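To the wet lab folks,

You asked to see what we're planning to order before we commit. Fair enough. Below is the target structure as tokens, and below that is the sequence we designed to fit it. If anything looks off to you, flag it before the synthesis order goes out.
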């Protein structure tokens, strides 16, 4: 009998994508049996051995396609095929065996597990009638439901996966640190906003990133970020391989966020947080910082870097000084610290 042009799974042909014909797993037998999803309506008790001989020609079809016939099953139309590559059992119609390339359900399940591991997940099982979805255990320990195609894209580093349970917990912690309670998602459907309740009882819609950094004002009681502790900071900014070397003096409730996310620096920039002065409120920090800038501009105008020097490098438009002005600025900060010692 001539060989089928279809290659055996036992050959070195690449594995197919995890997408395609899904399988149910019957576990009531001595060995697990993978059943095509289109036969999910058949009770597990029906997948019993069918005591009839297997035609010799069928054995040849199976060998050519990478399988061995384990036996007939359910009725005269079905066979249980044992995969040469993994040894798993899959139920198929004899018609499929004769006319097409059967697919091994155990190999398909292994493909799902491989894709999950590459994505940092553990594959648990398929999801009932949602045959495009599976249940996975994330690295945080929570179980997530995701599409198989989505997991493939995560494994290929084309997108990221996040656990909704862990995200909610993180958002609750962020809100609690600022005196708020996370209530739920934005009713308008904006993924960047959440609904929060302030300690005064007022409920408000707030951008999640603002809540995480504490930059939020309660519309009910007027509690604002500029009434909370803040900081005057001094940054040293350099771009290796260039002559760009400047100082940035400013104030922020979150100085690290300021230079990491808000200055628009190129990726290769080197930034050093030289000094941080805690102030009782954002209002105090802003006032002392502004007075320092005024003094430097009035007494040392040559220390101020012209805007055109850093335009396109920094997103700010002022408060940038020459590197040689370091001692001048530090002296101003010394006087501020002496007048406002830490409590």
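Sequence we intend to order:
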């Amino acid at each position: 009998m001539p060989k089928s042009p279809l290659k055996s799974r036992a050959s070195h042909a690449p594995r197919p994508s995890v997408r395609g014909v899904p399988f149910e797993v019957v576990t009531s037998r001595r060995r697990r049996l993978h059943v095509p999803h289109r036969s999910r309506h058949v009770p597990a008790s029906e997948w019993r051995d069918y005591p009839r001989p297997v035609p010799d020609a069928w054995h040849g079809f199976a060998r050519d396609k990478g399988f061995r016939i384990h036996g007939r099953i359910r009725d005269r139309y079905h066979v249980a095929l044992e995969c040469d590559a993994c040894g798993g059992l899959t139920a198929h119609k004899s018609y499929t065996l004769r006319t097409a390339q059967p697919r091994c359900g155990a190999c398909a399940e292994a493909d799902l597990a491989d894709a999950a591991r590459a994505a940092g997940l553990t594959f648990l099982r398929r999801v009932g009638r949602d045959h495009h979805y599976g249940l996975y255990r994330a690295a945080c320990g929570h179980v997530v439901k995701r599409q198989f195609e989505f997991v493939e894209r995560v494994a290929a580093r084309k997108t990221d996966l996040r656990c909704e349970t862990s995200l909610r917990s993180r958002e609750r912690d962020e809100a609690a640190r600022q005196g708020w309670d996370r209530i739920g998602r934005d009713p308008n459907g904006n993924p960047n906003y959440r609904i929060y309740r302030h300690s005064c009882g007022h409920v408000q819609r707030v951008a999640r990133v603002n809540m995480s950094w504490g930059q939020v004002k309660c519309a009910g009681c007027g509690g604002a970020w500029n009434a909370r502790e803040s900081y005057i900071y001094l940054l040293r900014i350099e771009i290796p391989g260039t002559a760009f070397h400047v100082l940035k003096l400013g104030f922020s409730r979150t100085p690290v966020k300021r230079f990491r996310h808000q200055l628009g620096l190129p990726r290769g920039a080197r930034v050093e947080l030289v000094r941080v002065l805690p102030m009782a409120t954002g209002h105090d920090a802003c006032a002392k910082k502004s007075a320092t800038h005024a003094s430097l501009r009035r007494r040392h105008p040559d220390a101020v870097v012209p805007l055109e020097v850093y335009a396109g490098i920094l997103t700010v438009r002022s408060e940038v000084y020459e590197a040689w002005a370091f001692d001048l600025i530090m002296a101003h900060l010394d006087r501020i610290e002496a007048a406002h010692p830490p409590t």
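Structural context that might help your review: The first strand starts at residue 23 and ends at 26. Residues 1-18 have pLDDT under 50 and may be disordered.

Thanks,
Computational group
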